[in-house]
Predict the 3D structure of the following.
Amino acid sequence: MKITLINPANNMVTSRGLLENIAASLSIYPPLGLLYLASYMARYGSHEVNLIDCQREPGGIDSIEKYLRDTSPRIVGIYAVTFNLANVLAIAKIVKAVDEKITVCIGGPHCSVYPFQTIEFAEVDFVVRGDGEITLAELVDTIEHDGDFSAVKGILYKNEGKIVETPLRPFLDNLDVLPFPARHLVDKYSYRTLLGRNVPYTVMITSRGCPYQCIFCSRQHQGYKIRSRSPENIVSEISECVANGIQEIFFYDDLFNFDEQRVYEICDRIIAARLDFKWNIRARVDLMNRKMLERLNAAGCTRIQYGIEAGTDRMLKVLKKGITVEQARRVVADTKEAGIQMLLYFLIGAPTETKEDIMNTIRFAIELDPNYAMFAIVAPFPGTELYTRGLEQGIYGDCWKTYAQHPTAGFKLPFWTGDLSEQELNGLLKYAYKSFYFRPLYIMRHLGDAFSLKSMVQKASFALDIWKHVTCKN
């Protein structure tokens, strides 16, 4: 059976033009979730699976209609995040305009938060919730053999005008059963990160889930239990990537360093296999130590992304981050000593936060002096504790649910404006970027660190992008 998976262009629907868009411009990642779906269906269903990544397709969404007419798939699966729902439905409408008989399946994080709102759209035939690999494969087989949809766990569908919800499928604990992502479906040269030095570039995951419950985190659809792949399985995939010419890998786990011994075993296997590639991770400072940093460096880890979030212990408690300022200070110093670069994340505009709190965060970022820092106004995304709390306190209405039912262009991303106005928050956000990136010593150091003319041009382009945002009047 012919199946086409589509990754919509990752455009924020907000009309505010916030500096968060800078972070999105740093990197373009392959659609890892869809590549997992493709490999699983190809292995266990022997289906012909193709993929359209609208992030990289020259024609974008406009090229989809021609592609569908040329290939005539039986099923189209579309990846959905809530803020991109307008693009998702635009694609679904194109699919049905090409051929009403094509089955449209929607999956992704959005479907874990708003499954019923999604299945109500006329263009949507099925909604897939949770881990999608087994569910979609079973659904496709059921469609192919005209079977009983009620036997497929984790879906919603329509039956004679009524919505049917099947029981949720438990999270997949043994991730080693999944075949490696079908990276051959995308151009490995199409993806990059401004922070990295090597192309071709890809992303991997070594685990799913996170036990921490920060009030701003929108990844609860992965579950609060960490489900880990075995080090042997992980290094086997790394070997495959390196053999196919991949030079740099970003391990996109929510929390790479949750198990110290696991980190050591992964590093030791990389070293033993003499795998020549660069890699970077996302980690927590309270779980990091010097020994782990030394082992990561020895295995080729060149950059770590830490979520620091705030510059005071009080605000870290408000965010339920579970770390302290002193822990961050110590681990950042240790990471520098280990010779590993850093990208640190900071948030402003959380509940009860004052202007002085935000200034403390900016000063703390400058004190820590990482290679890169990203600042953002904390956004109450659907399903987060922050969003629920704002609804209860009347800070904003249920705007995400309204958008999920009636997605329109120009949607206004809500902020927590009970303590500081939107105008004040945007002004402080601009000040944060300007204060961090336009320090003379920072500029001189990074120009000196540029390892090629191309790298220098990329860094200059990034700086100009920041300058454009911090000097605009909006």
